[in-house]
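Subject line: Sequence and fold of a protein, written as structure tokens
Body of memo: The sequence and its backbone structure tokens, given next.
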Amino acid sequence: MEVSFSNTEIAFQTRTNQDLKWAHRLFKVMASPFMVNIGKWGASVAFALRLPVEGMIRKTLYRHFVGGDDISTCETTIATLWNHRIGTILDYSVEGKENDSSFDASLDEILRTFDKAKGDERIPFCVFKMTGFARQKLLEKVSSQTALTEDETAEWERVKNRVLQICQRAFDYQQPVFIDAEETWLQPAIDQLAEEMMFKFNHSEIIVFTTLQLYRHDRLDYLRNLHRRACEKNVRIGVKLVRGAYMEKERERAAQYHYPDPIQPDKSATDRDYNACLQYCIEHIHEIAVCAGTHNEESSYTLISLLKEHGLPNNHSHVYFSQLLGMGDHISYNLANAGYLVVKYVPYGPVREVTPYLMRRAEENTAMRGQTGRELALITAELQRRKI
């Protein structure tokens, strides 16, 4: 079956007319940097003044981009997605304080996502961010290979123990887990732990996945080197490929501290390396499992072509496509309809606690004018097709 990402009937089959009209208004607002900045400022002030704005946020951004307040309230979203053969990744999107009690609470919550996912084919992956378990300053210090104090050494051991608990649970449940990527000045410490966990648990099955942000110009080489090291240890690797979400922050910091810019010179270089990573993974499909986290149509078509070129089935167990809840439905639903393996990141958490995530999501959508415009055009096309 040929896949067309312009098929809006399939893309929006779960959306009512009212849903589509509302989504159209939401993306029009997100297309305006001014409106997004006003909304971010207003939410911050309202929470500080303890004003009752949670209901308004719940009815707008939260409704579109979040699965529920907790794991149990995500069930409707999980079931709706699976009705169309789209899996769920439960993404705990609460940003806690940087202390051990908060980190331990996050650990307990992530472990609960494994309990939910165990034996449930609708939830093929779990996920966590390292900053949910460790102070950013500690990750930065480990990444820079600066000597740790005695207290910091003990703290780092606690971080490693949290990560080990997660990956051990993943191994025991045979439930693959993604370790998300973060800023470049934190990433070496994350890469170190991710590699340790892959080399420990990825012998017979690929359980632990690392994440590569291809807006970095060094990640294609990193993938090749990681694969080589894994083969030397007779283990396999899992990689989630994304373009990245911290570009402006990365450039500003590189300029501030006078070190080489870690970001690709332009978008075409990012696209080139992203597709090159896809090709490398497919060429080594028996040793690498890949999840293409992308809202980019060209890269999605590239992966489709690579599967065909190498004679691999649409539903090869080592190849997944992934998009965010509330975005890229024209990719997710059309791929799933054609028999490819697709998952959606489904953020969850109480309104107040996930609002920082929602504000970032709105800002990222505003920055990606092409993406927001594409979402608007597709929704408009479906509204016209329905004659409403």
The radius of gyration is 20 Å. Residues 67-348 form a domain with the TIM Barrel fold (CATH 3.20.20.220).
